[in-house]
Amino acid sequence: MGGASVVEQEFAVIGLGRFGASVARTLAGLGHSVLGVDSNAERVQELAGELTHVVQADCTDEHTVRSLGLRNFDTVVVAIGQDLEASILITLMLKELGVKRVVAKAASEIHGKVLERVGADQVVFPEKDMGTKVARALSQGGIMDFLELTPDVSVVELTPGEAVAGRTLKQLDLRARYHVTVIGVRRGKEVLVAPLADVPLRKDDILVAIGKNEHIDRLLREFCGRRR
Ligand code: ADP
């Protein structure tokens, strides 16, 4: 193992559609052991060279799920969006088998609620989350990228432009005025980590900040000059 920060884990991904294949490939690329399962032979074939193991099987069948030994995996990702019945049934079975962490992809709000009810430890909404991300990135004077830590709290990259040019973090006083804390400044290729309060900022600086979404939104409206 090269990277010191990555602890190698065993993952299984059920459903190798666009989302599942991307999750599986990325995990394998990060050095984890990944079993990919799909009922479709073509999908399985496509990923055969890239994952640790691939199996063609219908996971709604309990014997199949048992024989794959899925209960021994650290995390099983259920990446089936279209066939709701299969997604729910498989999630339920995995939890009943004792899988520690089941992460399930939801195609809609109600699908997500059902997945939680049947025991999913984490539910992800890839389309919705990506939509929010793209909209925020497109918003004028707004956010370049963001990371949602909880549904209420995010780390964001802000591009305030002229509003910060020549001024210091101390002068801007964003923490007191907006309850948003700047934890870094991206300046070209450089990143100033834990930036000092009296360093003058530049027009093209990107501020990396943490705060509650409502506070970040207010800062965006009032400070970054975003119009409604
Ligand atoms: P995406 O939108 O990410 O492409 P899909 O729901 O379209 O997601 O893809 C789901 C994948 O899961 C497909 O490749 C499909 O063959 C596979 N799949 C569906 N049902 C099962 C099942 N019961 N067992 C295993 N794989 C399944």
Plain-language structure description:
The protein is an alpha/beta fold. Helices cover 35% and strands 25% of the residues. 29% of the residues are buried. The mean pLDDT is 90. The protein is built from nine helices and eleven strands. It has a six-stranded parallel sheet with strand order 3-2-1-4-5-6, sandwiched between helices. It has a five-stranded antiparallel sheet with strand order 7-8-11-9-10. Adenosine-5'-diphosphate (ADP) binds at residues 14-20, 37-40, 43, 58-60, 79-83, 86.
By DSSP (H or I, 4+ residues per run), the number of helices equals: 9
Structural class: alpha/beta
* Strand composition percent: 25-35%
Largest sheet: 6 strands, parallel
Multimerization status? single chain
Average pLDDT over all residues = 90
Query: How many strands?
Result: 11
What is the 3D form? Answer: elongated
SSE sequence, one letter per element = EHEHEHEHEHEHEEHHEEEH
Which spans of ≥5 residues are poorly predicted at pLDDT below 50?
none
The first-to-last residue Cα distance is: 49 Å
Q: What are the distinct ligands in this entry?
A: adenosine-5'-diphosphate
- The order of strands across the largest sheet is 3-2-1-4-5-6
Helix content: 25-40%
C-alpha Rg (nearest Å): 22 Å
